[in-house]
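User: Here's a structure from my thesis project, written as structure tokens. My advisor, Dr. K., wants to see whether a designed sequence matches the one we expressed. Can you design one independently, without my sequence as a hint?
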């Protein structure tokens, strides 16, 4: 059959809020034109993030009931440890309440002021945790990643020449570890090839620099490797995941992504002395090592979820939903980052709104138009999120790209929801000349996109 169906049926429903355009106008104005300040109850299709927003399966809900809430040595911990070890092969595994807690423990125990951590693309919490201890987070995306529209497949790869140069300049002693993020979230959810991970590892090995995988979307990355990289077509996703992890010395993970859970994460490594440091800080800030920051029932749900994420039918369907939306937008000439990544579609808002300058925040204009037209919530990744506020009256420093992200929660929306979204985008695209400019009227000194207030402005 040509049609790739949702490989599940629905046993429990959750009503979607349906609002009228005039209601949305009032609601958005009341939220100071910032969709982060809307109540979720007023959003019909919520594509703000794929993090923690997925639907659990009946097997996960059943597993919750098996949660052993013993403080130490619980059965649920054993199951969690066994599952994570089966997938990753790592010797030491520490449960954390989410990904950033794993990053915090890693950064606080391994880094000193002035150290450098290279990555194909640091996620914002990873960067923040590294910078918080005074170290430097360096992004080394592949050169292909800079061209938003080239159809190259493994655009999430790390720039190997850049890595060699960074080691040359900094000296291996100043790089306590290197990271590789699969898929590369900051670079649009673009996958990383097995060959790239292997070559990164080979280079690091010469200098004795450990490699940590930011594994949030390890299963989506494994699917891309199976589909697109030579020699992997006949391998299972579990085998591919194991091979990826076998090239690394440890990993950080947010179970809110490919753990198919609403909360959770882990930190893992092979090195015994690292593990001692991790354990000591874990006990101080997260909890006893057999539950970390989680309840026994969470450990159960994550154990099931991690394995479900590696089911081929699930990944085929997930990939098909992203492709379905991408091909519909491409057919209409709507400018998106290509090829589509694993968990989101990124619209090029600068190309969508050529009548707006970066200082008009075209991403905010487009996000707000999508909400007003159809109650769809997307997120700006442009000059508001990444731009720097003006230093004393000067022009704001814009970012190279003005993007709007439509992130896909896992197993939540069906094809008709995507058809609705396409219809909304159709109208907004047709009427794009009327997308408005916005100015910031209030902002915080950092991470301003979460709480900023905007007003409409004349172009
Ligand atoms: C979400 C994410 C994190 C952080 O995980 P949280 O669970 O949100 O703390 C780290 N790295 C990447 C690539 C992510 O997508």
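Assistant: Designed independently from the structure alone:
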């Amino acid at each position: 059959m040509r049609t790739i169906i949702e490989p599940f049926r629905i046993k429990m429903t959750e009503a979607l809020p349906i609002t009228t355009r005039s209601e949305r106008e009032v609601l958005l104005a009341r939220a100071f034109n910032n969709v982060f300040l809307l109540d979720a109850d007023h959003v019909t299709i919520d594509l703000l993030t794929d993090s923690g927003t997925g639907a659990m399966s009946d097997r996960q809900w059943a597993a919750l009931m098996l949660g052993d809430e013993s403080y130490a040595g619980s059965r649920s911990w054993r199951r969690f440890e066994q599952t994570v070890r089966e997938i990753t092969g790592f010797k030491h595994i520490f449960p954390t309440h989410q990904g950033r807690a794993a990053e915090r423990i890693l950064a606080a125990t391994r880094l000193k002021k002035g150290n450098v951590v290279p990555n194909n693309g640091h996620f914002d919490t990873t960067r923040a945790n590294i910078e918080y201890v005074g170290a430097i987070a360096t992004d080394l995306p592949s050169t292909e990643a800079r061209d938003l529209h080239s159809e190259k497949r493994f655009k999430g790869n790390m720039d190997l020449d850049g890595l060699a140069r960074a080691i040359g300049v900094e000296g291996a002693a100043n790089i306590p570890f290197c990271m590789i993020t699969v898929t590369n979230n900051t670079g649009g959810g673009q996958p990383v090839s097995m060959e790239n991970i292997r070559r990164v590892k080979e280079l690091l090995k010469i200098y004795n620099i450990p490699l940590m995988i930011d594994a949030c979307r390890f299963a989506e990355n494994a699917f891309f490797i199976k589909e697109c990289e030579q020699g992997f077509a006949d391998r299972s996703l579990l085998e591919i995941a194991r091979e990826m992890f076998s090239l690394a010395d440890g990993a950080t993970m947010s179970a809110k992504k490919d753990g198919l859970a609403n909360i959770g994460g882990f930190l893992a490594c092979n090195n015994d002395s690292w593990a001692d440091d991790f354990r000591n800080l874990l006990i101080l800030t997260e909890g006893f090592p057999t539950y970390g920051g989680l309840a026994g029932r969470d450990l159960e749900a994550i154990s099931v979820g991690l394995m479900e994420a590696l089911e081929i039918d699930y990944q085929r369907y997930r990939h098909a939903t992203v492709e379905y939306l991408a091909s519909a937008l491409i057919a209409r000439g709507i400018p998106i980052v290509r090829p589509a990544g694993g968990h989101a579609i990124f619209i090029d808002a600068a190309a969508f709104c050529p009548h707006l300058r970066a200082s008009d925040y075209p991403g905010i204009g487009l996000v707000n138009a999508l909400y007003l037209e159809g109650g769809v919530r997307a997120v700006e990744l442009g000059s508001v999120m990444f731009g720097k506020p003006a230093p004393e009256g000067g022009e704001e420093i814009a970012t190279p790209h003005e993007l709007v992200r439509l992130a896909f929660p896992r197993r939540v929306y069906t094809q008709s929801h995507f058809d609705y979204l396409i219809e909304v985008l159709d109208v907004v695209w047709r009427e794009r000349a009327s997308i408005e400019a916005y100015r910031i009227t209030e902002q915080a000194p950092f991470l301003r996109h979460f709480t900023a207030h905007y007003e409409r402005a004349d172009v």
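When you compare it with your expressed construct, this may help: The mean pLDDT is 95.
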